[in-house]
Amino acid sequence: MSEIKNTHDYLVAKETKQKATPGIKRAFVIVGLFMMFQQITGINIPFYYGPVVIAKLHIFGSTGGTAISSAVFGIEASSILAIINVLATLIGFRLIDSYGRRSLALLGYSGMAFFDVLGAVLYLSHIDIGLLIGFAGFIIFFAFGVGGTGWIIQGEYFPTQYRGLFASLIAVVDWISNFAIIELFPVMDLKIGLGYTMAVFAVLSIMAVVIFFYIMPKTKGKSVEEINDIFENNTLATVRNASMSGYSDNSKTDKKQ
């Protein structure tokens, strides 16, 4: 029993002393931002509020019908969007190893911004179906380029001994961001309307493209150890270039020794 207790005390002490390195903190910043932008760009709006929003558009089955028929159509349309989400996600998982996490993420956020703008312009031009087109395109690009990527890089950016802790922290960031945007959407819809709300989401998606273009490393074909070295030996401003060139600040020092 004493031997088991000593082993337990040793492991607890070791885990307690273990602190996150600068590289781990840099990885957390990137993954945390990625998961935050996943949510605040509005992906859950069509799923949480879709039936209500779509029922108000008065298109197809909702035109001239009763309140019940409009609600049913809204649910049907939202179900179709959910199916699109699943299919596009499966496509994304087939492409992610071929094209890389960074490339798909940037393409995903760019496509999301485009369809947000398209939906906003059409809706503000009184073409109500434009909003549904915007939702569908937005979901497709989110699902294959952004949705799964955040969870994949979370597993790749952190060494095994840190993964459990930081996975929990990332989940907290994800759910807080989700809660914030879900609570804000009804206010935005009331104050500025659906069209301009989509425009806001487009701006946030463009911000994501710019931010991750500059700080998100290219990890295709790299091991967890190689990715960790990139984060440890570079700043947030240089991890992208280091990941693309295979160069890190320490590699230069190593060559001189």
UniProtKB/TrEMBL annotation:
Q: Where in the cell is it found?
A: Membrane
Q: Which residues form the Major facilitator superfamily (MFS) profile domain?
A: 1-220
Instruction: Cite a single GO MF annotation.
Output: transmembrane transporter activity
Report which superkingdom the organism of origin falls in. Answer: Archaea
Keyword annotations from UniProtKB, A to Z:
Membrane, Transmembrane, Transmembrane helix, Transport
Q: Carries keyword Transport?
A: yes
GO CC term (a single one): membrane
Q: Could you tell me which InterPro entries the record lists for this protein?
A: MFS_dom (IPR020846), MFS_sugar_transport-like (IPR005828), MFS_trans_sf (IPR036259), Myo-inositol_Transporter (IPR050814), Sugar/inositol_transpt (IPR003663), Sugar_transporter_CS (IPR005829)
User: Which Pfam families would you find in this protein's record?
Assistant: Sugar_tr
Instruction: Enumerate the transmembrane spans.
Output: 27-47, 67-92, 104-123, 129-153, 165-188, 194-215
Q: How does it sit in the membrane?
A: Multi-pass membrane protein
Q: Does the keyword Transmembrane helix apply?
A: yes
Report the sequence similarity comment from the record: Belongs to the major facilitator superfamily. Sugar transporter (TC 2.A.1.1) family.
| Protein name as annotated | Major facilitator superfamily (MFS) profile domain-containing protein
